[in-house]
Specification:
This is NADH-quinone oxidoreductase subunit E. By secondary structure, the protein is an alpha+beta fold. The protein is built from nine helices and five strands. It starts with 6 loop residues before the first helix and ends in a 6-residue tail after the last helix.
C-alpha cells in the first residue's frame, strides 16, 4: 500500500528555497544575470538559466533548481514544471556523454530496433541508464527532426544521422565505451 503524504508536506518541499549565492558559482550567476538582462522579466530566462547550470554540473539537482528559482524570483514548482517538460534538461545525474536515440516513426522504419539493441548490448545498459564507468547515458528521444536521414541520434547536442552498426561502433570507440562491461 502506498504511503499518503500530507499536502502541506508536499507544498513545503516544493517551495523550499535556498540562497542562490550559497549554491551557484559566480560564473553561473554572471551568465544567468546576462540572460535575465535580455528579457522583460527574470522568470523568462528560466530555460537559459537551467542550461547554464547544467553545462557546469551536467544535471540539475534539487538544490540547484531551488537556487535558480530564488535567483529568478519564481517558485520552485514553476521551474520544476519547465525543467521536466524539456527532455534536454536532466533532473538526474547523467554520464560524461549523453546519447539521445531518436525513436520516431521514421527511425523505426529505418532499422531503429537493430540500432537500439546494438547500443544497449554494447553499452550493457537499458534506456535511461548510465554505463557503470559513468561515461555514457542512453536516452530515447521522441523526434530529433531529421526524418529524411533516419535513423539518427544526438550525442552531447550534435546530430548524427544515417546510422548503421559500423557508425555506432566507431562512435562508441571514440567515446571509450565500445565494449560490454
Amino acid at each position: 500500500m502506498s504511503k499518503v503524504i500530507p499536502i502541506k508536506q508536499v507544498q513545503a518541499y516544493a517551495e523550499q528555497t535556498v540562497d542562490y549565492r550559497q549554491v551557484l558559482s559566480q560564473s553561473e550567476i554572471d551568465a544567468i544575470e546576462h540572460e535575465c538582462a535580455l528579457y522583460e522579466s527574470r522568470p523568462a530566462a528560466a530555460i537559459d538559466a537551467l542550461q547554464i547550470v547544467q553545462r557546469e554540473r551536467r544535471w540539475i539537482s534539487d538544490e540547484s533548481l531551488y537556487a535558480i528559482a530564488d535567483m529568478l524570483c519564481m517558485s520552485a514548482t514553476a521551474l520544476e514544471g519547465i525543467a521536466t517538460f524539456y527532455n534536454l534538461i536532466y533532473r538526474q545525474p547523467v554520464g560524461q556523454h549523453v546519447i539521445h536515440l531518436c525513436n520516431s516513426i521514421s527511425c523505426w522504419l529505418n532499422d531503429f530496433q537493430t540500432i537500439a539493441d546494438h547500443l544497449r548490448n554494447t553499452l550493457n545498459v537499458e534506456f535511461g541508464q548510465t554505463t557503470s564507468d559513468g561515461n555514457i547515458t542512453l536516452l530515447p528521444n521522441v523526434c530529433l527532426g531529421c526524418c529524411n536521414k533516419a535513423p539518427a541520434l544526438m550525442l552531447d547536442g550534435e546530430l548524427i544521422e544515417n546510422l548503421d552498426i559500423a557508425s555506432i561502433d566507431k562512435l562508441l570507440q571514440s567515446l571509450g565505451g565500445g565494449k560490454n562491461e
